[in-house]
């Protein structure tokens, strides 16, 4: 019964969000696009990094690949096939990167993923300047902001369902074991490399599609726009705030932080980066396991205190 109610609630929420473009103005739709984009990015990031505890900063690399694929092939490939092409390229890159780097762990993996994002940006810049003779590309596609919103909503819903399914499947259990101790996971017969590669690939394809879907918003795309490292850090902060190991954690982290960052960028444009860094430090020190885990721990502590005080109250 609870599963039926949860499914019905999920359908109602998605249907309600789908009606937003009919009642919101252009700014509201734009705000919705940005929010759905980061909700999807944070949820996709948590698919792999949440259970395995591999902190990836390669989000912007795949996001930029998706955006630039649309920019390069927008005049030669139909739009639906364009998204498929972007996803295929993102998958190919994820498989190559995963096969060569997922044996790394800890700070080495973090450094590599950050370097990967910068490497991809520099390669795209070099190709544009030395081969095509330009640094950016225009995108003229008949895609309205409302169309982008609905595409992102569909992708966000699919990502959420994938996360829910993985969390209740054997692969989800395998990921949790890998995150706790890879040596124990290997002795349990888990194919560590295959499981990590599969989840890294799924996460990367979703992130690539987010970049591809959002690309028509900009009209003009260049490497500094598509491969902005802030995207990786914002995604990481949002996932950590809500709790990357929880199903609804990235959602609870992405929505309030996105609204906060929008307000900060509009009111404190010169101090935005500093405030962003301070928020990141605060989350790491105060809420290392996310707001949901923090709330649960305090709730349990409060309940224990209440139970201990019951005899004293009775007396």
Automatic annotation (TrEMBL):
Would you tell me the protein name for this molecule? Answer: Branched-chain amino acid transport system permease protein
* Species in which this protein is naturally found: Xaviernesmea oryzae
Query: Where would one find the signal peptide in this protein?
Result: none
Query: Where in the cell is the protein located?
Result: Cell membrane
Positions of transmembrane segments: 28-48, 55-73, 79-99, 106-127, 147-166, 197-213, 225-244, 251-268, 274-295
Its placement in the membrane is given as:
Multi-pass membrane protein
Q: Which UniProt keywords apply?
A: Cell membrane, Membrane, Transmembrane, Transmembrane helix
**Xref: InterPro entries:** ABC_transp_permease, LivM-like
């Amino acid at each position: 019964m609870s599963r039926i109610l949860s499914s019905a609630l999920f359908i109602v929420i998605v249907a309600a969000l789908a009606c937003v473009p009919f009642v919101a103005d252009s700014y509201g739709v734009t705000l919705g696009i940005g929010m759905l984009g980061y909700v999807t990015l944070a949820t996709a990031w948590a698919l792999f990094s949440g259970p395995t505890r591999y902190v990836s900063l390669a989000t912007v690399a795949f996001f930029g690949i998706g955006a630039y694929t649309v920019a390069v092939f927008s005049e030669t490939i139909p739009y639906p096939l364009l998204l498929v092409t972007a996803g295929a390229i993102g998958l190919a890159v994820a498989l190559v990167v995963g096969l060569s780097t997922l044996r790394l762990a800890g700070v080495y993996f973090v450094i590599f993923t950050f370097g990967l994002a910068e490497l991809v940006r520099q390669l795209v810049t070099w190709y544009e300047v030395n081969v095509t003779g330009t640094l950016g590309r225009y995108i003229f596609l008949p895609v309205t902001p409302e169309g982008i919103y609905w595409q992102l909503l569909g992708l966000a819903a699919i990502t959420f369902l994938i996360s829910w399914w993985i969390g209740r499947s054997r692969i989800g259990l395998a990921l949790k074991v890998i995150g706790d101790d890879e040596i124990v996971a290997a002795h349990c017969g888990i194919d560590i490399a295959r499981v990590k590669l599969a989840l890294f690939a799924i996460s990367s394809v979703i992130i690539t599609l987010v970049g591809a879907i959002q690309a028509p918003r900009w009209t003009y795309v260049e490497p500094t726009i598509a491969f902005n490292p802030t995207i990786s850090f914002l995604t990481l902060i949002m996932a950590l705030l809500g709790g990357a190991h929880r199903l609804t954690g990235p959602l609870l982290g992405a929505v309030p932080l996105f609204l906060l960052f929008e307000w900060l960028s509009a009111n404190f444009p010169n101090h935005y980066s500093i405030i962003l860094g301070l928020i990141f430090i605060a989350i790491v020190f105060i809420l290392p396991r996310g707001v949901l885990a923090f709330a649960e721990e305090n709730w349990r502590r409060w309940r224990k205190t209440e139970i201990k005080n019951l005899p004293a109250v009775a007396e």
